[in-house]
Design goal:
By secondary structure, the chain is mainly beta. The chain is 0% helix and 58% strand.
């Protein structure tokens, strides 16, 4: 099992930037992919983006493409989500997840709140 802890959430004005971190510990050797998801009030959780742990290949939801960037630091077992040009509709609890490529996400963090004011 992998333990995940998100940090970096907060309140930001529209057009601003924020960087989230996701620190992984535990059985990280089995992790080949990590992802970011978000859930706004009254809505279902949605995919934001993902990164392969070894090669660093990324993929993003259309709603954040060009504004959000995922990166990772293998030495620190940490994944990042750099968010720019934030919009009020980006307001949500952001979760990181870890899993095996093609096998889904098995481990989840507790989430961090991001609020974008207009």
């Amino acid at each position: 099992q992998v333990q995940l802890v998100e940090s970096g959430g907060g309140l930001v004005q529209a057009g601003g930037s924020l960087r989230l971190s996701c620190a992984a510990s535990g059985r990280t050797i089995s992790t080949t992919i990590m992802g970011w998801f978000r859930q706004a009030p009254g809505k279902e959780r949605e995919f934001v983006g993902r990164i392969t742990w070894r090669g660093g290949a990324t993929g993003y939801a259309d709603s954040v493409k060009g504004r959000f960037t995922i990166s990772r630091d293998n030495a620190k077992n940490t994944m990042y989500l750099q968010m720019t040009s934030l919009k009020p509709e980006d307001t949500a609890v952001y979760y990181c997840a870890a899993g095996v490529f093609g096998g889904g996400y098995n481990d989840w963090g507790q989430g961090t709140q991001v609020t974008v004011s207009s």
